[in-house]
């Protein structure tokens, strides 16, 4: 059952990814960089980095004094490390950390920026995770996340709402939150100036730790 859930959990994200194909990784990176511009030179966490697609781009950009590639999965971190080696990326400004997004091993108010690409729908508790992100960010620190929103087919929305707990149980994907829910979540956790860009199912959003 566990293995079944593990594989099924990727299905919705894969479908959404396929349907949002014009949002290339490079484009997502450029969008994230724009949101993160005020935090250049600081410490950035690429949370739920997976194979380090974005962590590697953050390091190569040389825009940050330190990039923390963080994931809960040891296997994903191993893969990330392998790609770093293959691409000959210097690890001078890069550290790999295994941690749960809801229990980050960082001092409160010590991080300038946190990026979480295609991840919030995979977290067991988005609410605990965003509260923890807010805790570690410095005042003025920036949180940038991307996920998918299942509201493109309006007639399906009421069905999704009713079926959400069952879908979540089967797929292991916690929730594909709405824009409003993402904004509420951020503001409940002390993150302000919520803003987002939508393209089909895809959303990239940003919020700032209140000063
Ligand atoms: C869809 S992948 C996204 C990977 C990467 N950000 C990207 O865009 O290619 C989601 C990642 O979330 C990680 N994840 C799931 N639960 C987590 C948790 N509680 N804490 C930290 N990472 C978690 C998974 O291990 C996986 O690598």
From TrEMBL:
Domain of life: Eukaryota
Gene3D superfamilies from the UniProt entry: Vaccinia Virus protein VP39
Domain called Methyltransferase type: residue spans: 46-144
CDD domains per record: AdoMet_MTases
Sample GO molecular function, one term: S-adenosylmethionine-dependent methyltransferase activity
Pfam families registered for this protein in UniProt: Methyltransf_11
InterPro entries tied to this protein: Methyltransf_11, SAM-dependent_MTases_sf
Protein's name in the database: Methyltransferase type 11 domain-containing protein
